[in-house]
Amino acid sequence: MDKIYINPLPVRIWHWTNAFGFILLIATGLQLRYLDVIQVMPFQTAVQAHNFVGFVLIANFFLWLGFYLFTDKIKVYHPELSPAKYFMASFRQARFYGYGIFKGEPNPHHASAYRKFNALQSMTYQIIMMLVVPIQFFTGLLLWDVARFSSMVEMFGGVRVVDTVHVIFFIFFTGFIFIHPYLASLSHTPWAHFKAMITGYEEVEDE
Amino acid sequence: MSALHKVLVVDDDPVVGKSFSRVLGQKGYVVVTAGNAREALSKVQEGEYDVVFTDIKMPGMSGIELAERLKIERPWTPVVIVTGFGSTANQERARAAGVSSFLEKPLSPEMIEYSVLKALLDAVPAVLPGLAEAVNPEPVEQQNSVNPEPAKQQSNLKKVMLFAAAPFIGLAFIITLPFVGLATLAWLGTQSLFGKASTK
Fold first, then answer.
1. In this predicted structure, what is the pLDDT of residue B38?
2. Using the beta-carbon criterion (under 8 Å), do A112 and B105 form an inter-chain contact?
3. Is B16 part of a structural domain of the chain?
4. Is the dihedral of CA A18, A19, A20, A22 positive or negative?
């Protein structure tokens, strides 16, 4: 079985910092939201931890952004411009996840250094990394110091609107944190993708 | 480059052939496509090609086997391997077969054009040593030395623009995906019903 270098070191550092950071944000976020139900830590500690991890993850996001903007790996996040090609690849991949995988069929997507995502992953990650994550960080920043950003908060419709957007994406990320490891286990062995995100090398079947 | 150069593109995905036709057609090349290695071999028997681009994974004979066959039958024809899956084992086999270069998808128009130029210029000394230098002393560098910096900047700007546009294009695709899926299912269902009706 061949190995290809698919996850460079900055991507691996960003990924695992993000993973643990998001778990902490979800945990402290739950504590902040459901103070009357969960009493794992004092409210003030949850606020401070949530803010601190939030800023760490904002810095981490810029590490990710800088890496992709200043290397040729930017192609990984380039969109597919041919609708026919995209829809065909998406249906093939959806068919694999919904049917082929249970029949032991090979994954129709072959990863390479510049095409590590399949059609479905590609579009999902483009939206998550360049739209959902920045919006979540931005709304988090506004809620961190509402008084300082009051004019901007008002511009977006008030605290209630900003908070609702932040909570909707919080629910999305909570779901993502469960779905992501499940999808990551759907390789030729359950641990192959996890190993690739530790060593950088993905095992691929030869053509 | 001359307007009479013929390029054969071998790939079971017709989109690849179309991409080559679109990029090279504008530059005056004649692009012929083949869906598999057998078809490519028969086309090569029928006419001479200046360069052959082939995918690796195809039904029947693989691109590497095709390259090996071409290197035996027409050693002067440059063969470029194009694949979405560039494993080191495949690269070694391709090099052993004597291919000119090994390109990883996705290919940009610049990569397609540059690889054709490179393959053609590399092929000249193999046939007529010394001719390449006489015709064009610094072939590849000269192509790039016209105004390399603005071209590079434009290319980088394009990459960043594509990166920035990606989530919005992604959103448009994701929103339309269920409708395209349902329309495809309806079309397939209609085809199936009409097909059955016509056989009865």
1. 87
2. yes
3. yes
4. positive
Give the pLDDT score at B85: 61
**Residue B94: pLDDT over 90:** no
Assess whether B142 and B162 both reside in one domain.
no
Question: Could you tell me which chain A residue has the CA closest to the CA of B57?
Answer: A207
State the pairing for strand pair A2-5/A201-204. Answer: antiparallel
ipTM above 0.90? Answer: no
- Cβ contact B169–A79 (<8 Å): yes
Q: Does B105 touch chain A (CB under 8 A)?
A: yes
Domain identity same for B156 and B87: no
CB contact under 8 A, A207 and B57: yes
Task: Domain A2-204: give its CATH superfamily.
Answer: Transmembrane di-heme cytochromes, Chain C (1.20.950.20)
Asked if A156 and A162 touch (Cβ cutoff 8 Å), the reply is: yes
Strand partners, B8: B32, B52
Q: Is B182 on the interface with A (CB under 8 A)?
A: no
Residue B136 C-alpha, separation from nearest chain A C-alpha, in angstroms: 30
- 8 Å CB contact between A200 and A5: yes
Tell me chain B's radius of gyration from C-alpha atoms.
Answer: 21
Q: Is B24 exposed, middle or buried (0-12, 13-18, 19+ CB in 10 A)?
A: buried
All residues of chain B having their beta carbon less than 8 Å from the beta carbon of residue A121 are: none
pTM of the model: 0.62
Residue B195's domain comprises 147-200
**What is the count of structural domains for chain B?**
2
Q: Minimal CA–CA distance to A29: which of A49, A58, A12, A14?
A: A49
CA-to-CA distance for B53 and A142, rounded, in angstroms? Answer: 54
Q: Is the pLDDT of residue B28 over 70?
A: yes
List pLDDT tens digits, range A104-157. 888 888 887 778 899 999 999 999 999 999 999 999 999 999 999 999 999 999
Task: Inspect the interface and report whether the beta carbons of A112 and B171 lie closer than 8 Å.
Answer: no
Residues of B in contact with A70 (CB under 8 A): none
Which residue among A115, A130, A206 sits closest to B166, beta carbon to beta carbon?
Answer: A130
Enter the tokens of residue A116: 């590590």
Residues 139-198 of A with CB under 8 A from B: none
| CB contact A98 to B (< 8 Å) | no
B175 part of contact set with chain A, CB < 8 Å: no
